[in-house]
Amino acid sequence: MSITLHHVPFSRSFRVLWLLEELGLSAQIVMHSIRAGTMRQPDMRALSPAGRVPALEIDGMCLFESGAIVEYLAETHPEAGLAALPGTPDRARYLQMVHFAETQASLLEQLNMSHVFLRDPAQASPTVIKLTTMRLHATLGALESLLGDQEFLLAQGFSAADIMMGFNLFAAPYYVDLAEFPKLCAYRDRIAARPAYGAARAKDGEQEFYTQNFYPVPEGA
Asked: What is the C-alpha separation between 108 and 176, in angstroms, rounded?
């Protein structure tokens, strides 16, 4: 099987890179750069209509959108036990967590845009940043409650839902202090200890957009 992953370090394509490691699947990794604009090229848009990563070339087709790719890979490799398949007790919660991860990631994307990607930082709205940060904080509080005393999001154990959500927990601390969420911190540590996570991080490359460890809400918001 020939697999090619189009990837930007520390972006949502890391979810796919990580899942490939969990599944033991080898892939060629094609690195792209947000700042260099390589994803706007016609050949990339032919793979991903919005010109975004991830794009995964596999089985003679190309898949885009990290959630769709994660669901596809997990369900086409049931032997790995990373998907809650139709008819299983955790199915509904699995789907909810996969898609809740995208709700949370969209807030991270908005904060990335305001804090990091605007060429003129003065164009950012302090009020919008404050409200988006509050919404991100609320999703983290909800996730703390949803996790409860479980080790992972599903009762059946580690799954692709944890890959979807886990990526967020390594990006969220740029905008929200996770110290008030001890269960999420412990959950994040369990995820980081997985060999496949470490292997994927070693292949991830250097992130090119965060220039500081924490981005506070601007004064006056």
From this structure: 10
Residue 133 in tokens: 């940060």
Question: Mind listing the pLDDT tens digit for each residue in 47-93?
Answer: 889 888 999 999 889 999 999 999 999 999 999 999 999 999 999 99
Give the whole-angstrom CA distance, residue 130 versus residue 152.
30
Helical (H) or strand (E) element with 185? helix 182-192
Please state whether the predicted TM-score (pTM) of the whole model is above 0.90: yes
Beta strands in 44-156 (DSSP E): 55-58, 61-64
| 204 in Cβ contact with 17 (< 8 Å) | yes
Residue 193 main-chain phi, psi, to 5 deg:
-80, -10
Other beta carbons less than 10 A from residue 44's beta carbon? 20
Under DSSP, is residue 181 helix (H, G, I), strand (E, B) or coil? coil
Of 20, 1, 2, the C-alpha closest to 203 is: 20
Phi, psi of 147 (to 5 degrees): -70, -40
Max distance between CA atoms of the chain, in angstroms, equals 55
